[in-house]
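G.,

No rush on this.
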Amino acid sequence: MSFSIVPYDGISPMRPWPSLGPSAFCLQDSTRPKETVFFYDSSPPNGGAPDVKPVFVLIHGLGDEADSWRHLIPLLNSRGYRTLAPDLPGFGRSVVAGNVSLKRYAGVVARLIQAAVRPPPGQPGEGAAPSRPPVFLAGSSMGALVAQKAALAMPGISQGMVLIGGSIPGGPKNPGPLALAKILFNRKWYRVYRKSPDGLWASLYPYYADLDALPAQDKEFLRQRIMARVESPAQERAFFAIQRSVVRAYLTASFWFARRTRRSKEKILLLWGESDRIIPLSSAKAFKSLREGIALQTIPGAGHLPQQENPAETGRLMLEFAAACHAAEGGRALPPLPIPRPCG
């Protein structure tokens, strides 16, 4: 398998958040020549030298992009952490070939880590396996499910996992069969937003504790970004395809996730916005009860996307969790990550 990482060419109408533009790259995988994964890398290899900083891999939610982490990335960087934040294929600036699913997205995360996180210099002597810097997965909403899938299917991929507003078992309250059918198969409600900018903006209110309180720059950025999303046929296809995959996972794979989570030794932090109206806090409490070693923290002044509304508290809790995980491992680096098989 051959990976190549190239600077982002900037051709998408979805312009990066201004301060993140210089950190924009694309991952190309020879096994998927028609697929390109856009991602932000705060500390790309310089002259071929691997970076030794611990890494947070930030995985966005349904219909979102890597810019969801725009305020959290510099905060984590300022504390000595490298950040990798992809646009999952079909969303944002990533190009998808074929159908998308949680399994496939987990494979994308694994390939990004394999390509971008390499063993540091000064490795042990002959016969000793090289190691790589500590990696922590952090997923928001649907991205939390992707992080779970990657960590449970590929043990050793990370040293700890942060699930923000999402988990399996768990999830939103049952919307009822008719509402579920509309969400999964009827695209008219999605397309009507292309002619209704005000209606599209109003659709964001449930995701925030106080959408109107966001800084002006954020609101203008989001207005442009959400319209670019609904105007993209590729993102429309990905939106409905991955939503079907998520619903299937909740309906048919919750037992698998629960069983593997109970057996796993993965350290897990649940972060929930205090005013999350999308996924109830009861979902997080149910997940926490699966076993010891799962922590739960609520974030004040935040809804479903605390990384946007309260990045300072979100970042503080993530950093404390990562430091505790690393200390528990005696500062141990991670073993090399086997190259994952392509996920269908």
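When you get to it, here's the other one too:
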Amino acid sequence: MCAYGGVRAALASVLLFTFAGSVLAQEPPFPKRGPIEITVLFPAGSSADVAARLLADGMAKNLGQAVIVMNRPGAGGAIGYKYVGGQKPDGYSLVWNSNSISTTYHSGQLPFTYEAFDEVAQVLAETPVLAVPAASKYKTLADMIAAAKAQPKTITIANSGTGSHTHFTSVALFKAAGVEVIDVPFAAAQVIPSILGGQVDAGVQLPAALAGNVKAGQMRLLAAMTAKRDSAFPDVPTARELKLDVALELWRGIAVPKGTPKPVIAALEGAIRKTVTSKEFAEGSEKLGARPAFLSAADFAKVVAKEDADIAKLMVLLGMKKSS
């Protein structure tokens, strides 16, 4: 019995040592280090930048590692997409992406499609709106369309740059109305001053960029380009209510280079979910005029693929598609 007991004890010791060695040999879970970097496609201080920093703060708390924002603006987002697309697929380089991944590719500014990335999660949704100065003679969208019909190519509409979502939305809106206007691209930070200063008649922008001006009575909104009224501007009619079939909501989310391990994506997705569904994030988003709109990696991937196909078709119809 003693000999048998000794063998059992020795065997147990061997098994315990083997198990402990195996555990010690395992890689620690992601993230093993910091910082995790989020590339933002717009300048510091822009609404997209502020929203990304709000997300980064929450993710850092949930992951236990630093999450920082790096601004890489330019070329409708192409500079930032190219940078992240060329990084190691290890979960430490993320891009704060949007519908621009499709508009930038199909307009010929990006050499690869959305398929160069793996989606992690959708975070926010924003509604493009048509804005005029408070003193504008255009009281409604119908007023502006009537004027554009009477005098084609005289009304100027600002956007956030050629190939941007606001440019694309503006073209789609007035194409649907059957009128010709002059689209004027600006750097994102210049759009609001150009509208308020009277350099242009109107502008298509996202709520975060002009919510303060609207609340201050400096601007008036004529239409929202979404399927239903935006909670940020419940009194503003949608383009569809005005008989124009234009609903081009902007989504924002997180993507990583193609080939990032699924457990890493799952860890990032979990941290984003906790952040986006928090009270702090909801309150911060509301101040920016955006809506928390979390979608899982799988559901977000479906949205991106569907919208890419829809955007490609629309850009062909609008004469804006340049890539093959």
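Residues 14-25 have pLDDT under 50 and may be disordered. The CA atoms of residues 97 and 272 lie 14 Å apart.

Enjoy the weekend,
O.
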